[in-house]
């Protein structure tokens, strides 16, 4: 029940996202990746809802909506692809 949330403002916090998406159902986790070097948010997040119906409602209700001055891009998160280790 994990969603990808893109086009986030760098000012958006985990609490902002939890509050915003809780109107669609119970939010169980918010992961807001940060840049390794600057520590600033990277402009996207992963939000996990407690049920598929809550996730679907959140996607339908929030994709394209404004949060902190930015129009969100929200869709179901895709499984992470395996990446090579870089050694040949």
From TrEMBL:
One Pfam family matching this protein: RRM_1
Keywords: RNA-binding
Basic and acidic residues: bias regions: 62-88
Domain of life: Bacteria
CDD domains, A to Z: RRM2_NsCP33_like
Gene3D superfamilies given in the database record: 3.30.70.330
Record SUPFAM superfamilies: RNA-binding domain, RBD
PANTHER family hit by this protein: HETEROGENEOUS NUCLEAR RIBONUCLEOPROTEIN 87F-RELATED
Protein name as catalogued: RNA recognition motif domain-containing protein
Native species: Rubritalea spongiae
């Amino acid at each position: 029940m994990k969603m990808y949330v893109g086009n986030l403002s760098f000012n958006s916090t985990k609490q902002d996202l939890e509050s915003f998406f809780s109107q669609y159902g119970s939010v169980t986790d918010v992961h807001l990746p940060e840049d390794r070097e600057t520590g600033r948010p990277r402009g996207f997040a992963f939000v996990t809802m407690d049920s598929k119906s809550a996730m679907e409602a959140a996607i339908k209700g929030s994709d394209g909506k404004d949060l902190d001055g930015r129009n969100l891009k929200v869709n179901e998160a895709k499984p992470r692809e395996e990446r090579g280790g870089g050694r040949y």
